Amino acid sequence: MNYVGIDLGTTNSAICTYDGENVRIYQSPERNDITPSAIYIDKRGNKYFGSRAYNQSVRSPGNAATLFKRFMGTSTPIKLSAVNLTMTPEECSAEILRVLFGYLPEEIRHDEELGTVITVPAAFNQMQKTATMAAAESAGIGRVALMQEPVAAVMSVMRQRKGDGVFVVYDLGGGTLDVAIAESISGRVNLLAHGGIAVCGGRDFDRAIVDNIVKPWLRSTFDLPDNFSGDPKYTKLLRMAAWAAEQAKIALSQNEDAVISLPETDMGVQDQAGEEIYLDVPFDRKAFDALISQQVEESIQAVHEALEKAGMTANDVERVVFVGGPTNYKPLRDKVAFELGIAPSTEVNPMTAVAEGAAIFAESVDWSSQSRGRKNSRGSLSAGGSLNVTFDYIGRTPGTKTKLVARLGGRVAVGAQFQVDSMDTGWSSGRMDLKDGSGIELTLAKPGENTFKVFVFDSNGGPVSLAQDRIVVTRTAATIDAIPASSSIAVEVQDKVGGRIVLEYLVKDGDQLPKKGKVSFRAGVALKAGSADALRFKLWEGDIPDPVSDNRPVGVLKISGADFVDGVIAQGAELVCEYEMSDSGQIRLEVSVPSIGASFGQGHNFYSPQEGQIDFSDASQKIAEQSDRMLERVDQMSSKVDDPRLEQAREKLDKARDSAMNEAGEESSKEAMDGIQEAKRLLSLTRQAHLKEIRQMELDGINEFFNDTVRQYARPNEVTSFENLARTAQRAIDNNSLDFESHLDDLRGRNFNILWRQEWYVIDHFKRVSDQSFLSIDAHQHDALVKAGRDALGENDIDKLRAVVAQMYSIRIDTAPADDDMSIASNIVRA
Asked: Are 643 and 686 in contact (CB under 8 A)?
């Protein structure tokens, strides 16, 4: 039987098979092990893929799609403007998957038992993984499972080397960095921890060369506008400059010096004065090393963080194994190894290791299971008939030997014997006394399946007929025992009806996968069959306790009134949530409601990632708004505490803000949004490290807002109540109580409730949110609500306007501003 592994890469992809013994790479028509992840469509509608498509894309960028993996799981359109075609990232990935699958022989492609593992970066979030599965389904690939790239890389390493010890896999691809800390013991591997950087790879190195070397040279040599990067007239110029930069970068892998060069005849672009543009830019390793130094330093820090997760230091590690195209650059390998203080290793092919490891891992998948879990490593053979005898054995092992043990369920006549013969080599154990616990060590002569025949003899030496007499033991390339989750997944809940929003974690970063479990919630509101309302299970990815919205949105599983035909889910009704996270890190949910005898989940309801998706081709306003909001938080915290993480957060936010101001392309926008997410994490860590000071700052801010803005509208009893609660919150700070955040939310809610009675406040919110369509999940719904709000204003119906504004906040990607609590949150309650 064959198993398939596919490395679906940002810049290059690869496919190979594993038959239990040998791995085979299937090459492109150009006889290359890797295939560029590129699509080219000419004006007649002919499609080209791989190397030809990539080379053509340089001269005709409007006809081509590249780098679409970076936008998987988002709503970013991939536009081929020259042929008036727009594709989704999933559609582009499906095209590449079809091409790769087409390299396989027909008998393999049409094998109904075939199993295919497609790799994804460990940094991929739930939406990106779901999108990858959708691409595989669209490509018509049968049985598919996902696997994290660092796990696949580890499998490839173990195939090449059986030595015991701890090693680091440093996998730097075209778009992402994955880091894995693994420990091997006799061919069995524990993945102790992994980490990485979502936007860090060869493509980013190319962009750094273009931005810092090529663009300044072009501006000084030719008559170009200051903002020529955003001018469609120069799109071809920038694409060709990136291609030339990549070729020079590759040349530096072999030479100290290179030239970023393209003649006028190839460029075909003129400057504002009508001069033909060419490229002739000297480039050397020293300049390149300086350009990528910050990203290399960040990658080294990512390794340290992964080691810290595993409770280790560099002294505990034997070697660092390099995977991915950019690691072909020796100075990078040398710097990483030197800074880590770990010996470097190049024992695997960096370009194909992930695909090879994926194919090897595919052999370990139980393809008969819906969850695509791993095969059971233990086997058992029952003698049947009159004998109550069972032979237990290890059915899957990376070792060259395994043991078979007899287990007696009752009395067996004295003198009974058994024997095991190899069907592959002719070896025989000879007859042995059949006693409880009797064992035989079996030698596994070859990789893959080793078949043995079991014989049983009665006390007179006569053969006993067995219902089953064959066992198959698989000698695997390696066995992964532990795969840690790369991120935490939680459900947003109220801590009580109408209470504060908190996270109920299903899986925590580092939990061993696969993991399944069951947790009960309560309905926060009643839901009647047929109604338009819904119970919402909002999923978040991350470990930021406050505010919840600083984590990454995953999606929403909704139970709407339209999903059941009879009855009512009463407020307080039990909601039983069963979940499972697979080896790949994909989460599955199923919610049952005992009171109406119904279940809802991926097979029935709509588990949607859409509400967290972003279009990075139109994200500059989102980035600017979020950057400004986060920078305010940095300024506030910096005024109270001194922590280096605040400066790191500021640098990332300033960079994101600059990206938004310059209206950079989709890649820069994606990098900027990832930078904002990292800044949120840094702020959370800072808050936890200086909890008392930051809590005091937050309480002082709430009090100041009440005194300056809210007090004048508050009723006497509301003033007294607010002041009493503020004193309670102060005591919580002094006593280091866990209740402080609940008190703080309560104070915010009181401020909001007082102001929400004021017409001017409602109108002000409406006007502000009306201008923020870029923060809405659904632009059409936002526009309809704006019209409804204007109608309510015209009718002077403030109650109606309040309802409209609440709906507008409910469809925002982010949550409401810090001074109110308007966002329509999850309406399920912690049991």
From this structure: yes
Q: Which of 299, 313, 296, 295 is nearest to 192 (CA)?
A: 313
Q: How many domains does the chain have?
A: 5
**Beta carbons of 506 and 587 less than 8 angstroms apart:** yes
Residue 656 lies in a domain: no
Residue 543 belongs to domain spanning = 485-612
Residue whose entry in the numeric block shows the structure tokens 């059941």: 564
- Integer Cα distance of 594 and 523 in angstroms: 12
Asked if 490 and 581 sit in the same domain, the reply is yes
Clarify whether residues 762 and 707 are in a common domain.
yes
Instruction: Give the model confidence (pLDDT) of 263-312 as tens digits.
Output: 988 888 898 999 999 999 999 999 999 999 999 999 999 999 999 989 99
408 close to 435: Cβ distance less than 8 angstroms: yes
**Do 422 and 554 belong together in one domain?**
no
| Burial class of residue 773 (count of CB atoms within 10 Å of its CB; 0-12, 13-18, 19+) | middle
Identity (one letter) of the amino acid at 592?
S
Q: Tens digit of pLDDT for each residue in 764-789?
A: 989 988 888 777 767 788 889 999 99
Question: Which of 428, 426, 379 is CA-nearest to residue 407?
Answer: 379
SS3 per-residue string spanning 724-783 = HHHHHHHHHHHCCCCCHHHHHHHHHHHHHHHHHCCHHHHHHHHHHHHCCHHHECCHHHHH
Q: Return d(Cα 8, Cα 152) in angstroms, integer.
A: 12
Instruction: Output 689 or 555, whichever has higher pLDDT.
Output: 689
| C-beta contacts of 411-417 below 8 A and 24+ residues apart | 412/387, 413/458, 413/459, 414/459, 415/458, 415/459, 415/460, 416/456, 416/457, 416/458, 416/459, 417/456, 417/457, 417/461
pLDDT digits (tens, 9 = 90+) for 402-423: 999 999 877 777 888 999 999 9
End-to-end alpha carbon distance in the chain: 48
pTM of the model: 0.85
Report CA torsion sign: 309, 310, 314, 315: positive
Cβ–Cβ under 8 Å, residues 585 and 487: yes
| Euclidean distance between CA atoms 507 and 580, whole angstroms | 9
178 phi and psi angles, rounded to 5 deg: -120, 135
Amino acid 642 reads: D
589 and 520 assigned to the same domain: yes
What's the rounded mean pLDDT across residues 724-729? 96
Based on its alpha-carbon atoms, the radius of gyration of the chain, rounded to whole angstroms, reads 31
Q: How far apart are CA 774 and CA 782, in angstroms?
A: 10
Q: Are strands 568-569 and 527-528 parallel, antiparallel or unpaired?
A: antiparallel
Separation CA 233–CA 83 (nearest Å):
17
Give dist(CA 134, CA 653) in Å, integer: 33
The single residue listed with the structure tokens 């001194």 is 642
Q: Which residue blocks in 4-125 are alpha helix, DSSP H?
A: 50-59, 89-102, 106-109
- In a domain? residue 720: yes
The 8-class DSSP code of residue 228 comes to G
Does residue 391 come out as left (phi exceeding 0), alpha (psi in the -120 to 50 range) or beta? beta
117 and 257 fall within a common domain: no
CA distances (Å), 817 to each of 673, 725, 741, 799, in order?
19, 22, 17, 21
CA distance 554 to 537: 11
Peptide bond into 547 cis (omega under 30): yes
The stretch 524-550 carries a mean pLDDT of 88
Q: Coil, helix or strand for 45? A: coil
Looking up residue 133, the CATH number of its domain turns out to be 3.30.420.40
**Nearest residue to 756 via CA among 696, 796, 713, 814:** 713
CA–CA dist 787, 57 (Å, integer): 44
Return the structure tokens found at 43.
């004006």
Residue 576: per-residue pLDDT: 95
Is residue 51 within 8 A of residue 66, CB to CB? The reply is no
**Could you tell me the pLDDT band of residue 817, with boundaries at 50, 70 and 90?**
very low
User: CA–CA separation, 420 vs 428, rounded Å?
Assistant: 6
326 with 281, same domain: the answer is yes
Tell me whether the omega of the peptide bond preceding residue 331 falls within 30 degrees of 0, making it cis: no
